[in-house]
Design a protein that fits this description.
It is built from 9 helices and 13 strands. It is of the alpha+beta class. The chain has 2 domains: about 130 residues, Aminopeptidase (3-Layer(aba) Sandwich), CATH 3.40.630.30; about 140 residues, Gcn5-related N-acetyltransferase (GNAT) (Aminopeptidase). Strands 1, 2, 3, 4, 5, 6, 7, 8, 9, 10, 11, 12 and 13 form a 13-stranded mixed sheet that branches. Bound molecules: coenzyme A (COA). Coenzyme A binds next to strand 10, helix 8 and helix 9.
């Protein structure tokens, strides 16, 4: 039995989104989420397909990678294949050899789930740990407290408001209305929502996109931001509460988010909205 590496066609993305959803579990490691693919979809379906790498054994999908950048691969692995040595060896071989078309030459980064065998193999190859990330989770068994701001669910006619808040929240954001529409046309967006928070004057002050992976599965916040002119007023906490409530309405068992540990404001905001800090994770970096 051999393990095969491939890049999907656009038509093949739907089933892969379904696999990523299946692999999410509150009890398992944090995995690349359908929402990560959904957020990437703003660049279009073609570019999304080109950024995905799939490892299968006799047609059974065992690992799915997404190249967030040409030098950053984020991996999800089927829960019962996390310790699969043959799979880990094949992924390792494909990652270290640029000709296989996964990662470029030089300094590159890989994110893989905790407990993945491939992590051990990459450390043995001399890879180092990189920047720490903090995952946070809020259980959604109980109803979420009121956000205490007005919250709109964004439809196509309000895309411009959503993208304007994004650009005012993240330095260097390239989110445009065209990209919002590309994202909203993607398979994962069928179980996603964009929310915009408004202050009492009606200004759009905060925004978030939430992605459900289906009932009983962890849902993802990606991204969340507060307009730079309106920070420090509790809107970050408020839009995060609204995001958690929206995910609960979509049937999610928990709300999940990941942020660089260095983003102390984001970690504080999620904690203020009832999220619990999970153990830090670190990408692995090839230093040569
Ligand atoms: C992080 C961000 C969302 C905070 O928004 P905000 O509206 O200012 O946050 P809030 O006023 O709701 O604050 C919530 C809590 O976080 C704390 N906090 C917010 N920014 C902080 C900072 N820079 N440093 C330390 N604490 C901070 C507040 O003190 C508050 O804590 P408290 O409830 O214990 O008093 C905002 O700065 C932002 O959009 N940053 C850029 C985008 C980003 O990083 N998004 C998250 C990425 S995943």
């Amino acid at each position: 039995m051999t393990i095969r590496l491939s890049t999907p066609e656009v038509a093949g993305l739907g089933p892969l989104v379904g696999k990523l959803a299946d692999w999410q579990a509150d009890t398992g490691p944090v995995q690349l989420h359908p929402g990560d693919l959904g957020w990437f979809w703003r660049f279009g379906a073609e570019r999304t397909a080109n950024s995905v790498r799939v490892w299968d054994r006799d047609g059974e999908v065992l690992a799915i990678g997404m190249l967030d950048e040409p030098d950053l691969l984020r991996l999800a692995i089927a829960p019962d294949a996390l310790a699969d040595d043959e799979l880990a060896q094949q992924i390792e071989a494909d990652l270290v050899e640029p000709a296989r078309g996964v990662l470029i030459e030089g300094e590159v980064y890989v994110e893989s789930p905790a407990d993945a065998r491939v992590k051990v193999l990459l450390f043995k190859d001399g890879w180092n740990t990189a920047e720490p990330w903090t995952p946070l989770r809020r259980d959604l068994a109980e109803p979420v407290e009121d956000a205490e701001v007005a919250v709109d669910v964004v439809g196509p006619e309000h895309a411009a408001v959503r993208t304007a808040v994004q650009r005012a929240s993240f330095d260097g954001s390239s989110f445009t209305d065209e990209r919002w529409h590309a994202m909203a046309a993607g398979t994962p967006y069928a179980s996603a929502r964009c929310l915009v928070g408004r202050n009492e004057r009606g200004d759009a002050v905060a925004a978030v996109t939430v992605w459900s992976a289906g009932p009983g599965k962890p849902g993802l916040l990606e991204p969340m931001g507060v307009h730079r002119d309106f920070r420090g007023n509790g809107y970050g906490r408020a839009i995060t509460l609204a995001a958690a409530a929206a995910l609960r309405d979509l049937g999610a068992s928990s709300a999940l988010v990941c942020t660089p540990s260095s983003n102390v404001g984001a970690v504080a905001t999620y904690r203020a909205a009832g999220f619990e800090v999970l153990p830090e994770t670190r990408d692995q970096k090839r230093p040569f």
